[in-house]
TrEMBL record:
PANTHER family: BURP DOMAIN PROTEIN USPL1-LIKE (PTHR31236), POLYGALACTURONASE NON-CATALYTIC SUBUNIT AROGP2-LIKE (PTHR31236:SF58). This is BURP domain-containing protein. It comes from the Eukaryota. It comes from Hibiscus sabdariffa (roselle). Residues 146-168 are annotated as: Disordered. Residues 173-383 form the BURP domain. It holds the Pfam family BURP.
Length: 383
């Protein structure tokens, strides 16, 4: 191959839509370096040699190791580094250090890899993420009728041990007056193992249907059978994404870094920042005290819940009169955290059966209701 470093990338697609090659470009010499997934070799050819194929726009990354999602993020937010919470769930590279190698693998490879990972995550009983706030009409809960955690049931699922944290009721919904310095909170969902399910590459995500009326096709794409645990979780995620928004709510689902970014910018504009829950270290301690320094991040928000799916899917929604708070916490074991909480000032459109009203023994629309967000939830707010 000609000398010089790889300065940009592009994907070459065969006429049938399959990923054929990844094209890496060396500036100034008119050569294209290609990795053929059907013929695992790297070769250098002239641009004329790929004239019969469709070539995606080449983006010069400016440095070795840049992947398409990072280049895309930089094009939208040139002055803002990609947050770690997003970097951790970018589509994986096939070979570490080869920024171009993963894009030379066809869609079937990604589907197989993501399906295998999804099955592994669900091989044992997996603690279900708490997505009550995804659907304000009805809270799908794992709590007893008094709103407190059913610890015996959760302990049988391996969700809790027998430590001190279990002696305190889990903090679910609470009144705004309880969001104050010195308040003790019990947050198992904050310290739960982070879900590292990665985004699919944008082109792969777009090639696979995402709708309940094509669910059989989706299962076939991921080589999954109906009525399995994985299929049921995926069905629930899709239906959650398709549910109608309530009054005062805007919502969408995103299954790639590009769609996650584009749809958020469409809603809030480019002068935004992405927030995530932060822990100083991994811990099994769930008991925290609210410390000084709480920040009101405003009401121009978009809360994005990570859903159950082979690739990362976020259900993002904005509910009128909802304030986001960044809450400093100190754990019983010394762990520090910055947790995200939201307070809903208007719950008049929520179902009277929502668990929040059972926990607090109040009626819709009468008081401000707050709750902390689970570990993998991301929140966009205006700068």
């Amino acid at each position: 191959m000609d000398g010089g470093g790889i300065e940009g990338w592009g994907v070459i697609w065969a006429p049938d839509g399959a990923v054929r090659w990844l094209a890496s470009v060396r500036r100034g010499n008119g050569r294209v370096v290609m990795l053929d997934p059907q013929e695992p070799e790297i070769r250098s050819v002239g641009v004329a040699g790929v004239a019969s194929f469709s070539v995606d726009i080449i983006v010069f990354a400016g440095s070795h190791g840049a992947v398409p999602e990072e280049v895309y993020w930089k094009s939208v937010f040139p002055n803002n580094p990609m947050p770690k919470a997003l970097k951790d769930i970018l589509p994986p590279l096939v070979n570490s250090g080869d920024a171009y190698s993963d894009r030379g693998i066809d869609i079937r490879y990604y589907v197989r890899m993501y399906t295998d990972t999804f099955k592994q995550l669900n091989a044992a009983i997996k603690p279900r993420r708490n997505h009550g706030d995804c659907d304000p009409r009805l809270y799908e809960h794992e709590y007893s009728r008094d709103g407190m955690t059913n610890r015996d049931e959760l302990r049988s699922q391996g969700k809790y041990g027998d430590g001190e944290s279990n002696k305190e009721s889990e903090t679910t919904f609470f009144l705004q007056r309880d969001l104050r310095i010195g308040k003790l909170v019990n947050l198992p969902s904050l310290v739960a193992t982070s879900d590292e399910t990665a985004f699919l590459p944008d082109r792969v995500a777009k090639a696979i249907p995402f709708s309940s009326d094509k669910f059989s096709e989706i299962l076939n794409s991921f080589s999954l059978k109906p009525q399995t645990r994985e299929a049921n979780l995926m069905d629930e995620t899709i239906r959650g994404c398709e549910r109608a928004a309530i009054n005062g709510e805007e919502k969408f689902c995103a299954s790639s870094l590009e769609s996650f970014t584009d749809l958020s910018v469409t809603k809030l504009g480019k002068r935004i920042q992405l927030l995530s829950n932060e822990l100083s270290k991994e811990t099994n301690n769930t008991l925290f005290t609210i410390a000084r320094g709480m920040q009101n991040m405003g009401e121009n928000e978009l809360v994005c819940h990570k859903m159950e799916y082979p690739g990362a899917v976020f259900l993002c929604h904005s509910i009128d009169k909802t304030t986001v708070y960044k809450v400093p916490l100190v754990g019983r074991d010394g762990t520090s955290a910055n947790a995200l909480a939201v307070c809903h000032k208007d719950t008049s459109s929520w179902s009277p059966k929502h668990m929040a009203f059972q926990v607090l023994k109040v009626k819709p629309g009468t008081v401000t209701i707050c709750h902390f967000l689970t570990r993998d939830t991301l929140v966009w707010v205006s700068n």
